[in-house]
Design a protein that fits this description.
mainly alpha; Growth Hormone, Chain: A; 2 domains
Length: 414
């Protein structure tokens, strides 16, 4: 792993800022959820508070990409981080002074989610501005590893802090984390506002979407990301816990989730070691690895526990989730590098935001539609159908002539 890139001041500031921000991104939702519970939220109230954060994040992502292409990306990163910090600190003050309500918490949660929508596209697009073309592949791997590590640390720390000092102080600490990230981003080099040419925000939005539509390999990659998240949300997020309850239990399902997250880190490192030797169309096949846990979950439901012990299913489903995470990174890292290398700087923020929206949009759809699907065909068949969908789309995208013509980015600049 080329850690020597961290000697470059601009890239070091970007990497550290993103690492700290992802710690905050893992920390904030946990603090907000338990703050809502402390305020007496029931399941419906809790769902509304969670949606209040996630919905603005998804809806505003595309506009985050537009701003990243219109204005200095350092400015966008700094301001969005300070807004994230401020929202959590305000929530902490209201909680500690016992003046917080579920309504104010939901509003603050929405502000926090909106700020994250502007942070992501700007900092993703900054990678190419901080390193040479030859180092973009290595830099992309380091950035993804840092984000995955930060998310794991944030999730673990968030649960620990909430459990020991309470949700009010946890919100304050989360705000402090984002404030540190903002200060780190100040160390990024100044960059000029980019090419909107005086056009309106909506015109820039339309031209960004038009660029993706006119670029078939980007459209295909967005479709594959959508299908992956759709199948993962329905098959793993919704059906996974239900199947775990009937087989190896809730505690072990939590451990399986930890193994899945570990796979993201291992996958990013492995994808980095493969740079220059894997073309994008081959990387797309990596997304098909999600079929493994989906099929294993299906088989676990239909196997007599006397014949195959539930602990064995825990082991194999954990392996399947690990493999799926590795496959996701094997797909995502080359895709990110291709965007850094092949997309003009004036469009890079919008392209990253479109890919993110396309991916995230699959999550709520998968969570909503999996229930009716299982009622129609049964849970085992629904899981097999999701696995088949992922394999078909991954293979179709990989075999697309336009995708196959996209060279391995490192090979192009080497």
């Amino acid at each position: 792993m080329p850690w020597s890139l961290l000697r470059i001041p601009a890239f070091r500031a970007l990497w550290l800022g993103r690492l700290v921000s992802w710690i905050g991104s893992g920390f904030a939702p946990i603090a907000i959820v338990f703050a809502a519970i402390d305020l007496g939220a029931d399941a419906v109230d809790l769902g509304l508070v969670v949606v209040a954060r996630s919905l603005p994040n998804i809806l505003l992502l595309i506009f985050g990409g537009v701003l990243a292409d219109r204005h200095p990306r350092r400015l966008v990163a700094v301001v969005s981080s300070f807004v994230s910090a401020g929202s959590l600190i305000v929530a902490a003050v209201l909680m500690l002074t016992e003046t917080e309500t579920l309504v104010t918490l939901a509003v603050i949660s929405a502000v926090n989610g909106a700020a994250a929508a502007f942070f992501g596209p700007a900092t993703n697009a900054l990678v190419r501005d901080t390193v040479s073309d030859r180092s973009i592949g290595d830099a992309t791997v380091l950035v993804r590893v840092g984000a995955n590590v930060g998310l794991i640390v944030g999730l673990a720390a968030g649960g620990a802090v909430v459990g020991t000092v309470g949700s009010g102080l946890a919100l304050a600490l989360g705000g402090a984390v984002f404030a540190v990230a903002a200060v780190v981003f100040v160390g990024l080099p100044g960059d000029a506002a980019r090419a909107s040419g005086g056009t309106s925000l909506l015109a820039d939005l339309g031209s960004g979407l038009g660029f993706v539509v006119r670029t078939p390999w980007l459209t295909a990659a967005a479709a594959l990301a959508f299908v992956f998240q759709f199948a993962f949300a329905g098959g793993v997020h919704v059906l996974g816990p239900l199947i775990a309850d009937q087989t190896f239990g809730r505690l072990l399902w939590g451990y399986a989730g930890a193994v899945q997250t570990l796979g993201l880190i291992v996958g990013a490192f492995w994808a980095g070691s493969l740079r220059g030797r894997v073309r994008l169309w081959v990387a797309c096949l990596g997304a098909g690895a999600l079929a493994a846990p989906l099929l294993l979950l299906s088989f676990a439901l239909e196997t007599d526990p006397v014949v195959f012990d539930p602990l064995h299913w825990f082991f194999w489903i954990s392996v399947g989730l690990f493999v799926a995470s590795v496959g996701l990174e094997v797909f995502t890292v080359p895709l990110d590098v291709a965007v850094q290398q092949l997309v003009p700087g004036a469009y890079r923020g919008r392209v990253f935001s479109v890919l993110a929206v396309g991916s995230l949009a699959g999550i709520p759809l998968g969570e909503v539609l999996i229930g009716p699907l299982t009622e129609l065909v049964g849970t085992p068949v629904a899981l097999v159908a999701l696995a088949g969908l992922v394999l078909v789309v991954a293979t179709g995208v990989a075999l697309s002539p336009r995708v196959r013509r996209v060279d391995a980015p490192e090979a192009r600049v080497g």
